[in-house]
Amino acid sequence: MALRNETRLGPYEIVSPIGAGGMGEVYRARDPRLGREVAIKILPASFSSDASRLHRFEQEARAAAALNHPNILVVFDLGTQDGSPYIVSELLEGATLRERLRTGPLPVRKAIDYAQQIARGLAAAHDRGIVHRDLKPENILVTDDGRVKILDFGLAKLHVSEGPESSDALTQTVHSDPGTVLGTVGYMSPEQVRGKPADARSDLFSFGAILYEVLSGKRAFHGESAAETMSAIAKEEPPDLTETNRNVPPALERIVRHCLEKNPSERFQSARDVAFDLETVSGTSQAGVRVQPLPASFRWRKLLPIFWIISLILTAAAAFVFGKRGAVSSPRFRTLSYERGSIPNARFTPDGRSVIYDAAWEGRPLRIFSTPAESVQPRALEFEQAHLLGISRSGDIALGLAGTLGNHLDVRFATLGVAPLAGGAPRELLENVAEADWAPDGTVAVVHTVNHRDRIEFPVGRVLYETTGWITAIRISPKGDRIAFLEHPVWPDDRGWVATVDVAGQKQKLTKEFESVVGLAWSPAGELWFAATKGNEYRSLRAVDLAGRERVVLTVPGALRLYDVAQDGRVLLSLDNEHVGVKAYMPGQSGERDLSWSGWTIANDISLDNKSLLFDEESVIAGSSYIVGIRSMEGSPPVRLGQGNGGHFSQNGKSVSTVPLTGEPRIVLLPTGVGAAKELPVPLEKVSFTLLSPDDRHLMFAGAEHGHAFRCYVQEIETGKIRAATPEGAYACVPSPDGASVATINSEGKLAIYSSGDDQPRIIPGDTSGLEPIRWCADGGLYVYRNQLPLRILRIDPTTGKQTVARELAPTDAAGLIGISPVVLSPDAKAYAYSYRRTLSELYVVEGLK
Prior knowledge:
By secondary structure, this protein is of the alpha+beta class. The protein has twelve helices and 56 strands. The longest helix is centred in the N-terminal third of the chain and has 20 residues, at 108-127.
């Protein structure tokens, strides 16, 4: 029963189709009563022909709806329309596990993460006496922020009669839809194959078959026909996982084998046992396996025993390396937050009894909260549209007013305000501030952005250090004699190192470069603690002393973010689930398609024919050099082209421009098909994003000479000749179709157009602060956007400055959504893609770290 847009189904308004299969059709719909979007699955009318069978299904579906577990699809409602039953559920953005497996097996720790979530969802259902009976990759959805949802509880009872399941019934199922049901047969338990009743242990067998496939990329049981597949399930053992994936730890293979025991009494007897064993192996899987952050729905209290073991081992090893054989850490975690959202900053109050933090919960605007460190009683403070920067010993709070939140929860372009923590209107001190901290005597140090260059001023107005990169997390030492900070060489990448500068302006670099480094604080022992990613690991808590001796303090299966360390040694940190995904649209599609790859995907360009997306993959599986790839706008598997930061398609689509992250500064033209790469050396200190000119004969890119700020350059591909196209500080580069002009952002943050032969730029009239150029329009206008939600793509007239809205973009789930950037348009502006960034934080006070 195909439904048109705006058709009403009970109280629900159909918006658009999502998909269809053997179990019915799925639509995106709107519930006008609650003002939310939902998913509606309409089941075939034939399923309702047996009234008793339909009644049993409705009972079980209602029981599943009462589960309210984060790893089970939430069912809102049941109904019937024209003889066809339908189910109303939450609307999720993501891909099924089957779709994720099309590109091959998953990294081991990501597989463990997904498996833990599935096991917890099954445990919740089994505790209520609900058995799935049809668990398979098609019935498991992975959302864009890494949460796993089990789908279609109750449909198995509708699809296969309850009670002893005859082989005839199964055979009928197979013949009704061979493609779909053959997959289902491949995940049945031996007792289901033999026509015996299925209980919770049957789900665990199906779970084991899924986990086997996730780790190996191959099905555990697969034959040329359904009968051969069923025979293999009943009699054969799948090949060892180590034959296809050497990274699988033996303990994990034992879990899979235990799930796949033919005799139900010899399997795991509960999903909770499976989840517990997976939690144990998650802390011991091989270090060489690249990982992804765990979802925010996971409650880390269950992993505290594992945290203690990991921390004990790591701290003991560090003590051995540095000759510090003192007591090892035994951390104790206290949770301070329970809502879904991001936490940019947090601090202990001077007396250590309370915690002040700013957070954006459940998609609501950012607010500053206060909560006792020993309990969870958050109270919103009166400061609005303000970011927390720091707290003085006397109880004053430094605020970033009306600033923008960057890609890594960093504050940019804020006005520094100071107010008593007890309340009162803030006093404004300085514009274009990114960071601030208090000295013991109440003096303020800031990161001040001037002409797009970050500099540390202490006190305000006295420059101690300036960089062509960018600076985060400044912290003044307890004696007030030096300032520690994180320096990042290229905006907006958060790779970087820990450094200090003393009051005389002498800088000292303490660590080498990390792939990601966030958060910084002085410990009572005089070390600098920070959170950083090294190689293919999670972001762990580390320490370095002023002599550059580094050690690991705490590593957990997740990305840590450090905020503060109290005088008594308590640590304020969060566990972050970070995800950057890509949404894309091309003409002819019913809606946006998710083209995310592995957790940190950056959209760069769309080909001239609107068919291909150029992207970077910057997740841990990509390593420190990142991956440049392309994939079809229709969602086919990605193709890896090389390493670096992707730039732009050539007009003929046969090559793309990239900037490698290692070695001497250079630009590389990578072929999209057959051919050899071409390297172009660049005589500069730094090179950032790059574009190919409309004639494919020139490159335009952002670069910087030693000690200078970024500007736009043009380089001839054939000769390598290079020239500056803009003055310093004008770093965005969008060439006009004829190549004669370039739209950019000047050193004052305004949109400007530089043309060859002109002495002065043409400043676009009106308020253009914060706008970023995307592409020129065919009629001479300019497409631009501002990274705020909801995001609007604007068309701006360069002569008059008139702005009109071309498109509005925003993912449906706003919890933890930091922003949408970059945005790319096809040359004809009919197709688009954008990266959306989401961070879900859980705040903890940790005791016992040393």
